[in-house]
Design a protein that fits this description.
Blueprint (H helix, E strand, L loop, with lengths): L1 H15 L8 H21 L10 H35 L4 H14 L7 E2 L13 H4 L44 H17 L4 E8 L3 E8 L5 H5 L2 H7 L6 E4 L6 E6 L8 H5 L2 H5 L5 E7 L4 E5 L6 E4 L6 H13 L7 E6 L23 H24 L5 H7 L8 E6 L2 H22 L5 E7 L9 H5 L3 E4 L5 H8 L12 E5 L6 E5 L4 H12 L7 H5 L19 H11 L1 E2 L1 H8 L3 H13 L13 E2 L3
Parallel strand pairs: 1-2, 8-11, 8-12, 9-10, 10-11
Antiparallel strand pairs: 2-3, 3-5, 4-5, 6-7, 6-14, 12-13, 13-14, 15-16
C-alpha cells in the first residue's frame, strides 16, 4: 500500500504545481521490486509466521528463488545492492553532492550555534534615531466610511471622509530565506572576510524585506575603517552584490547589509495600516517605508520641518514623493492641509490635479513656479502678522485660539525637480526657497524638494544648510552622496526605493520606501474628488505688488476702499487681519487700505498687537 499512496501524493503535488521535477521511472520500478523482496528475506530469516506474506506474492517467490540459487547471504547482498541503486536513482542530486552537503551541514551546526537569527519585527533592534522621529502621541482613530459618498463634489466639508485603506492594493512578498540558508550565508561572509585578512564572527542575522543585515564582530585589533573600506571588494567577492557596511549605534558589532536574492515590495498599505501610522496625531504624518528590521517607519513633517530628496532616475524618488502625498491625504481634510505642487517634468504630480487639497492647479511652467514661490513668501509674511496680532508664536497655538473659520491650514510645497527651476531662474528660486526654509516653520508652511541632480549648482550650500532632514536614494558617485548627506553610502544602495534617511541629530537610517502604484493613486484621488472640489481663491488673492510710496491720490485708492469703510462702520472696529478675512485679499493690499483709512482719519490709534483699532467714520 505504500507505493500507491506515494504515487497519490506525488500526483497531487504535480497538480498543485508544488512538484517541478519529473519522477524517475526506472528508479521507482526497481524500488517497488526490491523492497518486497527485502521484506520477505527479513521475514524468512527471523521465522516470522503470518497468514499473508508482508512482501506479497512477488516478494516471497522471488526471495525463495534467490535463496535457492545464491544462498541467503548472497540474496541479502544482491537485494540490498539493487535497493540502494534504486534509492540513488531517486535522489534529486548526484550522490557525491548529496553526501558533501550533508557532511557540510553536519560540520557547520556546532560551529554556528552562537548565531541568532532575528526574524520578528517586534524584536527591538538598537536605536538608530530618536523615537519621536517615527512615532507621535496617540489620538482617536478617524472612522472611515464603508462606501464612498454619493453625489456631486461640493465645497461642503462637513461630510468629508478620509480615504479607506481598502483603496490601496495588497502586494505579495516572496518567502523569506530559511534559517539554514541564512546560516550558510553567514559562513560564506566570514570566509570571504578571512580572504581579506579580517577575522571575526557573525553574532546575529536580521532578515528584512529587501536586505539582510549580518552583525559581524571583528576580532580584537582590527580597525573598523579597514572593514568599511572593503565594501566594494566584499560585494564583488559575493557575486557582484552591493554590500553596505556601517557601525551599529550602541553595539560593538558592525552591520553588514547584503541584498536578498528575492526582493520584496513594501506596500504603502502596510505602512498606512501600521500602528505607528494610526497612532500619529500629526496631519503631516509621512509613511516613509520599512527599516531593515521589518518595522514600519513613519515621520512627522512638522518636526523635520523641511525635506530634501535626491537620487538618480529610477531610484524610487518620485514613488517616495507619491507615497508621502498619499499619506497626507489619508490623514488630513482639505481645510486642514493645502498643497502647492510644482512639477516641471509634467509627469508625476498631474494625477493630483483637481483634488480639494490643492492651493492652486499643479504648476508646470518654471516661470509660473517662480511666481508661486514668491506668493508663498507673501503668505508666510501674512501668517506671521496674523499670529503676532493674536499674541501667539506658531500656527498650532494660533489655531487653538481663533474660531474654526479663521484657522489656518498647513501648506506643503512639493517641488518634484529643483534642477529645472534653478536653471531657469536660480537666484529668485533660491531666495524664495531659502527664505521659506528659514522662517516658514512656525507659520505652518513646509517644503518637500526633490532633485535627480544632487550637484553643488543645484543643491547650493545655503539651500542644504536650511534642510536638516535629507532623504538620499541611489546615486552614481560618492561625491553625489557627500553632496546630499555629507557622507558616503548612497552610492551603495540598490535602487527601487532603497534609501538613507538623515534626521537632525540622528544617525543615518536605511529604509525601504513604500510603493504605491498609479492605480492606487487614481483610486484615492477619485474618492477625494467625489466629495469636494478645489478652491483656489486664497492663492489667487495673493498679489506680488511693490509697496506704495508717499501719499495716495483718489485715482490710486483701492477699489475695495468704500466697501472697507462700510464694513468698519458696521463693526465699529477694524484691523488688517479682519480686512484680509472679509475680502480675501493679501496682507500688502490690506495694509495699504488701512494706511488710507489712517490718512483720512477714519481709524483710531494703534492699541497693540492682536487688538483691532476703533473705526471713527
Amino acid at each position: 500500500f505504500i507505493i500507491p499512496l506515494a504515487l497519490i501524493v506525488y500526483g497531487a503535488k504535480r497538480i498543485l504545481g508544488k512538484e517541478k521535477k519529473r519522477i524517475h521511472l526506472p528508479g521507482v520500478i526497481l524500488l517497488s521490486l526490491t523492497a518486497p523482496i527485502l521484506v520477505s528475506l527479513v521475514v524468512d530469516t527471523f521465522n516470522i509466521h503470518t497468514e499473508v506474506s508482508p512482501g506479497g506474492f512477488i516478494g516471497k517467490e522471488t526471495s525463495n528463488i534467490f535463496i535457492r540459487f545464491i544462498s541467503l547471504p548472497g540474496a541479502y547482498i544482491f537485494t540490498i545492492g539493487l535497493f540502494l541503486s534504486a534509492v540513488i536513482m531517486l535522489l534529486p542530486d548526484p550522490l557525491p553532492e548529496t553526501a558533501k552537503r550533508l557532511f557540510k551541514n553536519r560540520k557547520r551546526e556546532p560551529k554556528k550555534t552562537g548565531v541568532k537569527v532575528v526574524d520578528s519585527p517586534s524584536s527591538e533592534p538598537p536605536s538608530t534615531t530618536n523615537e519621536e522621529v517615527f512615532l507621535a502621541p496617540a489620538r482617536p482613530s478617524v472612522p472611515h466610511p464603508d462606501t464612498p459618498p454619493s453625489g456631486h463634489a461640493s465645497n461642503d466639508l462637513s461630510r468629508y471622509r478620509l480615504p479607506r485603506i481598502e483603496l490601496l492594493s495588497v502586494h505579495e512578498r516572496p518567502e523569506k530565506p530559511g534559517k539554514d540558508e541564512l546560516l550558510e550565508q553567514a559562513e560564506i561572509l566570514e570566509a570571504k572576510l578571512r580572504d581579506f585578512n579580517i577575522t571575526g564572527k557573525v553574532t546575529q542575522v536580521h532578515p528584512g524585506p529587501v536586505v539582510t543585515m549580518y552583525e559581524f564582530e571583528p576580532a580584537p585589533g582590527i580597525k573598523i575603517s579597514k572593514i568599511v573600506s572593503l565594501a566594494d571588494d566584499l560585494g564583488r567577492a559575493m557575486g557582484g552584490l552591493s554590500v553596505r557596511i556601517s557601525p551599529i549605534p550602541g553595539k560593538t558589532p558592525l552591520g553588514i547589509e547584503v541584498p536578498n536574492k528575492k526582493r520584496g515590495v513594501v506596500a504603502l498599505r502596510e505602512i498606512v495600516g501600521s500602528e505607528s501610522f494610526k497612532k500619529s496625531y500629526s496631519k503631516l504624518t509621512l509613511a516613509v517605508g520599512m527599516d531593515i528590521y521589518g518595522r514600519a517607519i513613519v515621520s512627522d513633517l512638522t518636526r523635520m520641518p523641511h525635506l530634501l530628496v535626491a537620487g538618480t532616475t529610477g531610484s524610487g524618488k518620485s514613488v517616495a514623493i507619491n507615497s508621502m502625498i498619499m499619506s497626507i491625504l489619508y490623514k488630513a481634510r482639505p481645510d486642514e492641509v493645502k498643497m502647492l505642487m510644482i512639477d516641471p517634468k509634467l509627469l508625476e504630480l498631474s494625477a493630483y490635479d483637481g483634488i480639494p487639497h490643492l492651493l492652486a492647479p499643479v504648476v508646470t511652467n518654471p516661470k509660473d513656479a517662480t511666481i508661486a514661490l514668491k506668493k508663498m513668501v507673501i503668505e508666510m509674511e501674512r501668517r506671521y502678522r496674523l499670529i503676532a496680532e493674536e499674541g501667539r508664536r506658531n500656527i498650532e497655538n494660533y489655531n487653538l485660539r481663533v474660531s474654526d473659520d479663521e484657522k489656518l491650514p498647513y501648506i506643503v510645497i512639493i517641488i518634484d525637480e529643483l534642477a529645472d527651476l534653478m536653471f531657469t531662474a536660480s537666484k529668485e528660486v533660491e531666495d524664495s526657497i531659502v527664505r521659506l526654509a528659514q522662517m516658514a516653520r512656525a507659520s505652518g508652511i513646509h517644503l518637500i524638494v526633490a532633485t535627480q541632480r544632487p550637484s553643488v549648482d543645484v543643491i547650493t550650500g545655503i539651500i542644504k544648510a536650511n534642510f536638516p532632514t535629507r532623504m538620499a536614494f541611489q546615486v552614481s558617485t560618492k561625491v553625489d552622496s557627500r553632496t546630499i548627506l555629507d557622507t558616503q553610502g548612497a552610492e551603495q544602495l540598490i535602487g527601487r526605493g532603497d534609501m538613507l534617511l538623515m534626521m537632525p541629530g540622528a544617525r543615518l537610517v536605511r529604509i525601504h520606501g513604500a510603493y504605491v502604484s498609479e492605480d492606487e493613486i487614481r483610486n484615492v484621488t477619485n474618492f477625494i474628488k467625489s466629495q469636494a472640489s478645489p478652491d483656489y481663491s486664497l492663492f489667487e488673492s495673493m498679489e506680488i505688488e511693490p509697496q506704495s510710496e508717499g501719499g495716495s491720490s483718489d485715482e490710486e485708492r483701492d477699489e475695495l476702499y468704500q466697501k472697507v469703510i462700510e464694513f468698519g462702520s458696521s463693526k465699529g472696529e477694524i484691523s488688517i487681519s479682519s480686512i484680509q478675512r472679509k475680502f480675501k485679499i493679501g496682507y500688502n493690499r490690506a495694509a495699504r487700505i488701512m494706511q488710507l483709512l489712517e490718512e483720512d482719519g477714519l481709524v483710531g490709534p494703534h492699541r497693540g498687537a492682536g487688538k483691532p483699532r476703533d473705526f471713527l467714520g
